Amino acid sequence: MRALSGLSNSDKITVDQIEHYIYNMKIEYGNQDKGKIRKSDIIRILNILSSIAADMNKADPIIEYKDPEKTVYMYDSFFSFNLKFHYRNE
Q1: What would the mean pLDDT of 23-47 be, rounded to a whole number?
Q2: Edge-to-edge strand order for the sheet containing 71-74?
Q3: Which pLDDT does position 86 carry in this prediction?
Q4: 87/28: higher pLDDT
Q5: Is the CB of residue 70 less than 8 Å from the CB of residue 59?
Q6: 47 vs 66: CA distance, rounded Å
Q7: How does pLDDT run across 53-74, given as a tens digit for each residue?
């Protein structure tokens, strides 16, 4: 969610952009061999978020992940705005 918030200026975000953003956050993982975020983890989480958004509003989801394109679409500007400023002070 923090990566999406950092990239929320765009309504079209690729998995590669999210992966790059997370990598640049320099998260401490403890054991360097375990726990690093993989692209497959990002895709799995995006599928879950997309599913939740579709369940809430099938006609107009706020966020959607399209696997063939490996892209997230954030359709709701209020959701993007909220994401952007929710993590601003952390």
Answers
A1: 77
A2: 12-14, 71-74, 63-66
A3: 81
A4: 87
A5: no
A6: 8
A7: 999 988 889 999 999 999 999 9
Q: How far apart are CA 31 and CA 25, in angstroms?
A: 17
Cβ–Cβ < 8 Å for 65, 72: yes
Instruction: State the SS3 of the chain.
Output: CHHHHHCCCCCEEEHHHHHHHHHHCCCCCCCCCCCCCCHHHHHHHHHHHHHHHHHHCCCCCCEEEECCCCEEEECCHHHHHHHHHHCCCC
Largest CA distance in the chain: 44
Token pair, residue 82, equals: 């909220």
Computed on alpha carbons and rounded to an integer, the radius of gyration of the chain in Å comes to 14
Strand-pairing partners, residue 71, are 14, 66
CA distance 45 to 50: 9
